[in-house]
Amino acid sequence: MNISNESIVKDLTILREKNPLVHNITNYVVMNFTANILLASGASPVMAHAIEEVEDMVSIASALVINIGTLSPPWVESMIKAGKAAAKKGIPVILDPVGVGATPYRTDTAKKIIDECDITVIRGNASEILSLRDSSAGSKGVDSMHSIDTAENAAVAMANELNITVAVTGDIDLVTDGTGIVRIQNGHPLMGKVTGTGCSASAITAAFAAINDDALAATAAALTCFGIAGELASKHAEGPGTFTTALIDALYNLSTDDINRLASITIQERRDI
Amino acid sequence: MNISNESIVKDLTILREKNPLVHNITNYVVMNFTANILLASGASPVMAHAIEEVEDMVSIASALVINIGTLSPPWVESMIKAGKAAAKKGIPVILDPVGVGATPYRTDTAKKIIDECDITVIRGNASEILSLRDSSAGSKGVDSMHSIDTAENAAVAMANELNITVAVTGDIDLVTDGTGIVRIQNGHPLMGKVTGTGCSASAITAAFAAINDDALAATAAALTCFGIAGELASKHAEGPGTFTTALIDALYNLSTDDINRLASITIQERRDI
Amino acid sequence: MNISNESIVKDLTILREKNPLVHNITNYVVMNFTANILLASGASPVMAHAIEEVEDMVSIASALVINIGTLSPPWVESMIKAGKAAAKKGIPVILDPVGVGATPYRTDTAKKIIDECDITVIRGNASEILSLRDSSAGSKGVDSMHSIDTAENAAVAMANELNITVAVTGDIDLVTDGTGIVRIQNGHPLMGKVTGTGCSASAITAAFAAINDDALAATAAALTCFGIAGELASKHAEGPGTFTTALIDALYNLSTDDINRLASITIQERRDI
Predict the structure, then answer these.
(1) Do the chains contact at B39 and A73, CB–CB below 8 Å?
(2) Total domain count for chain A?
(3) Which ipTM was obtained for this model?
(4) Element containing residue B268 per DSSP (H, E)
(5) Span B66-94, pLDDT tens digits
(6) Residue B232 belongs to what domain range?
């Protein structure tokens, strides 16, 4: 696997230079925060959900994020239309199955999107990833009730079956393409106290995937940078409010030295599933 | 009435331990801020508005917030369906009648929701509460043109007639179940300069009502904690921007000592209406 | 032209005294930030998009903002209905043609709104203003690919043809009514790294236009105040996160002295188009 501090630094540098357009069809709660995280990372965000324009927007975008956090039928229709257009164009599609497991509508919708679109990366918390495989896994709304480890087998199996990259984020982030597993120990507990950090992790993954065709490496780089930014932000935070502003600052200012000092990733091969 | 510094501390402690899921069908403007306020208070927020899933989401939630700030017919339909499901399940429903009085559509919708759902608490500003009783009261968009005192009789009468708790928030907050009246002198003028503090007051009321069946006490506790957080935040604020981040921090860090030092509530019985 | 430091100070003072209600039909991404910017400027924001109430809301408002950032057919229908009601009532209508040029749907919609409503001010970035005149100009999502200077002729011509005020914002802001051109050198590069600063510039323009019938002067005053707030905010910023909160603070605290010290505007007459 081509994942190292050097490759992460290189990806971030290219992202800032290329400033790729990331098209988001995402939920109302996190749109503003996600857009600011994308800008801070070096990408150019656009939000557009109307069936009348999603294909045109995809045609000028370098990556697509599909996030079902506040889904409804017209939005789902646009997500699928955009997802198909993105696959046809060959740009990466990142699916964030927010709250899968909480309601049948979410679970069914996520599965439908996976069936009908050519997804590149799925990023969710442990409960969401487990619920995609086993609808009885359960979920507490949009927050996880499961540890990362319990979702490892589901993530590896899903990555193999769908031939995609799967990321499970939480205290430790796990990224797998079905054989390679990258664990990222970066991050900070306050990230779980700010709404939309998971959604933003998906968006920043899209930004990195827009400039690196190796989806596993791009996802790992994105989550490492985001996690390091969280650690740096915690030094300036008195709570989740100041942490949020500091997180945007930290991502914007993230340096090669920060990555070299703080990146904490472990790489493993797994061939048993 | 069982409202004291001790009861407020106890409610906040239980809220943080139980981490109840609060289902919000709320307006676009405040979704992010509301979710962060709920997280900071100790609750777990979820936003879901599709008619396809609101009943399922209610079935796993511990409280429901209905907020009409950016209403439209499909959302109103979902609010009523969710409200009925919540009543059937027996979880508290908090209605925030944003902008009632500003347009007939808002006034009619709020009345329809009150008629068709079993509301536990209505929280609004003075103009909104007055407009629910007298459609000629008027309102300036979503901001109040009336003092708390002018809304007292309307609040007490409405609480009696509907057998609910009514909260009128502003410089001083007034909470009544029709006989008991609690006045909360906590808060800070900058709260009126940040969009969504009223909506967040409703959401945090839902969080407390989720863990305390005494709606009057839960509402008073919620508004006292939020008001104290506002006072603490003002010490770190240079204006409404830094105040917003400090408010989230202060709520997250709110201590027993803060409540004991700063809580300023007065309790009154009223039997004349 | 009646544009000077004194006129800007006077406008801001009146805005804070009159606290005009600004009705926004705007995009999901920026609703919260826009509302907070309007509150910080002295205005009272309301967001309402349902066809059932937009005319009623316009009837109590002092200005209307139409922003197509996350447009869809039902919203466009409401925008046009509100725009017509605003024209009939005689209040200013500010159009923000977000992302025009990125998709045909956006370009067509913006042109339709301009045709059917009586717009007072159009504010966009250079690519958006150019795309309104020449659909081949192109745009990178919602970010500009063109310099202000390249859009000057398009802005002056459009202002003349439509008999409106056109504002092109970017490193330098340009405001024209077709003969007069005001250039505003205030602002800070971090404003381009925060989502919704353009949208907020449109909203604050509506706030000033609500209290000053001279649309050119009102727009120039709004953009000058916003730009100065950006400069002041940059002194307290470590990046786009802290910049955002500082921007709201700076606007809220903006003083006569700040305007006199920092306002940097140049005025020019142009009679060749």
Answers:
(1) no
(2) 1
(3) 0.95
(4) strand B265-269
(5) 999 999 999 999 999 999 999 999 999 99
(6) 5-269
